[in-house]
Amino acid sequence: MPKYLAVAEKVYKNIKKDNLFSKDLTQNLNCLISQIRKAIKGTDFKLKFNYIDFDEQFKSQSESKFKIDLSVMPKFENEGEYLLWLAGFIERITDGGKPKFPPISQLIPQGFKISKEVFPVTAVPPKEEHADMIISYFKSEDFMKTNKTPS
C-alpha cells in the first residue's frame, strides 16, 4: 500500500497544482486516469485497462469489466480521505507493485492433520535458573574480553 499511496500523493499534487478538478465527475475520472498514467510511467506498475469508458460505466455497471463504487469517493478537498481512496483506486486499476499471495489455506492439503505429539515440547527452566545463566554470562571471560567495562 505505501507504493500506491506514493503514486496517489504525486497524482493529487499534480492535479491540485494545475487546478484540474471540475464539477463533472466523468471529466475528473478521465483526468485521474491520465495523471495516474503519467505518474506510473517508468515504474513497475502498469494499467490493467488501456481505456475505461466512464460514461458507459455509469449507465450499466453489471456489463462493465471494471467495477467502481463512486458512492465512497470523497470530495477532492478532503485530502487525507481522498488520498486513501485514490490509493485503493490505483491498486484496483494497476498491475505490479507488491504481489498478492494466495491464502495459506490453499497451500495446505485438505486431509492434512497435525497433533501436539508431532512437536516435542522442551521443559522451560525455572526463572531462577534463567537469572543465574544471565549473571554467569556477564561474569564469563568471553564477555569480559569483548566488552570492556569501566572500572
Give an overview of the whole structure.
This protein is 48% helix and 3% strand. The chain has a two-stranded antiparallel sheet with strand order 1-2. With 151 residues, the chain is mainly α. The model has no long low-confidence stretch (mean pLDDT 80). It has 6 helices and 2 strands. The protein is elongated, with a radius of gyration of 28 Å. The chain starts with a helix and ends in a 5-residue tail after the last helix. The protein has 2 domains: 2-95, no CATH class; 104-146, no CATH class.
What is the molecular shape?
Answer: elongated
Strand order of the largest sheet: 1-2
Order of helices and strands: HHEHHEHH
**Mind summarizing the main beta sheet?**
2 strands, antiparallel
The total of helices stands at 6
The structural class is mainly alpha
Q: How far apart are the first and last residues' alpha carbons, in Å?
A: 51 Å
Uncertain stretches = none
Helix coverage percent? 40-55%
Return Rg in Å. 28 Å
How many domains comprise the coordinates? Answer: 2
> Overall mean pLDDT score?
80
Q: Which percent band covers the strand fraction?
A: under 5%
- Per DSSP E runs of 2 or more residues, the count of β-strands stands at 2
Name some characteristics of this structure:
151 residues, mainly alpha, 2 domains, two-stranded antiparallel ribbon, 6 helices, 2 strands, elongated
